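User: Can you fold this complex?
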Amino acid sequence: DAGVTQSPTHLIKTRGQQVTLRCSPKSGHDTVSWYQQALGQGPQFIFQYYEEEERQRGNFPDRFSGHQFPNYSSELNVNALLLGDSALYLCASSLVGTGGAGANVLTFGAGSRLTVL
Amino acid sequence: LAKTTQPISMDSYEGQEVNITCSHNNIATNDYITWYQQFPSQGPRFIIQGYKTKVTNEVASLFIPADRKSSTLSLPRVSLSDTAVYYCLVGPYGNNRLAFGKGNQVVVIP
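Assistant: Here's the predicted assembly.
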């Protein structure tokens, strides 16, 4: 049973560029959340997608956007990259579509390490 | 979401039992306590979750006193591979917007 898979694992961009990160949730999960983890910090919630819609959003600017596809996979897009966007971006999946089974228990991927120069 | 406070770091010797504490003074009635473990360059991994008293699984035990203002994660007989950052989170059941603090860096020494 495959867990959460993310791609790419590492990437380097320059300021002002745009980046797209991809996530495939764990089999059977229907909700995807994205987190940003700066070095030495805990993960910070960016947003959550369920039924192809953004359901919750953390304190991140509109430069951060996302999408969820009918097969539950998801993308995170960041426009106009800043040096401060350098971080590990984590995707997490869960199953909430049936009343909270496994709620609060997220399965995380290994992350995409973004470096902005 | 209720905030948590954890020690920044702690060391332990291999084979010992490790108790990791977490303070959550403002925990709400409907909040659960959840612990995650994170190794370098990996995503956090769920360890255990509880509401009150004691919860035990194959990996750890979670002790929650009656006032629920703190909790203790207990790892029996740690090995070097248990070196990781441990996060304590509180939030209502069904909430997937997890609020991570800086966590507690646990280093297991040979």
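Chain A touches chain B at residues 4, 31, 33, 35, 40-45, 48, 56, 58, 88, 90-92, 94, 96, 100, 103-111, 113 (CB under 8 Å). Residues 29 and 95 of chain A are 5 Å apart (CA to CA).
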